[in-house]
Amino acid sequence: MYRIYIVEDDAVIARTLKEHLEKWDYDVKCAGDFRGIMEEFARFEPELVIMDILLPFYNGYHWCTQIRKISKVPILCLSSAADNMNIVMAMNMGGDDFIEKPFDLNVLTAKVQAMFRRAYAFQGQMNLIEHDGVILNLSDACVSFEGKKMELTKNDFKILQMLMENAGKIVSRDELMQRLWESDEFIDDNTLTVNVTRLRKRLEEIGITGFIKTKKGSGYVIQ
Predict the structure, then answer these.
(1) Which fold has domain 3-120?
(2) Once rounded to an integer, what is the mean pLDDT over residues 111-130?
(3) Which among 9, 10, 114, 216 is least surrounded, fewest beta carbons within 10 Å?
(4) DSSP assignment of the chain, as one string?
């Protein structure tokens, strides 16, 4: 069952789309927080996005650009302004197709089906972890926050992945060292401290501060 994320602020249109697409056995979620689209996107992990252009706070072009920084998921843009400039703008900002409002639900469904066929003949499933706006892409070892993106080293990625997978729980130093070095050999405990310190400094470069907490005598936690 493919997952579709609808970013549409008109509640009637959003509900109509959701009910119609669910009849085709799609798993559909409508945006609820128009300031936190990326957080919802990362949690739901959709395989297709239907994006309205005129939205509160930030327009659809903005969100297309943000999504494209972390994902190649197909995006179908909706707009009542279907002049050539708007269509070109939507494509340039990361959209894959465009449909004018008002639209026929059968035409929209046909476009959705075609986009799934094109995209997933070659594209694997997206794999993201999100917490407090921080998005970790497990496919390319990149971390994103508020539109900024950074590629992580192998060790930085392993540490952040383990902590984010266990958000709210303390991960012991022993568990982290086992994940990092995948060996029963003795590793200097200070080596882990150096790695975590370096990761914190790298995260600060893209505005992520105070994300990893130290629990003295226990380990580390993301709360």
Answers:
(1) Rossmann fold (3.40.50)
(2) 75
(3) 216
(4) --EEEEE-S-HHHHHHHHHHHHTTT-EEEE---TT-HHHHHHHH--SEEEEESS-SSS-HHHHHHHHHTT----EEEEES--SHHHHHHHHHTT-SEEEESS--HHHHHHHHHHHHHHHHTT-PPP-EEEETTEEEETTTTEEEETTEEEEPPHHHHHHHHHHHHTTTSPEEHHHHHHHHH-SSS---HHHHHHHHHHHHHHHHTTT--S-SEEETTTEEE--
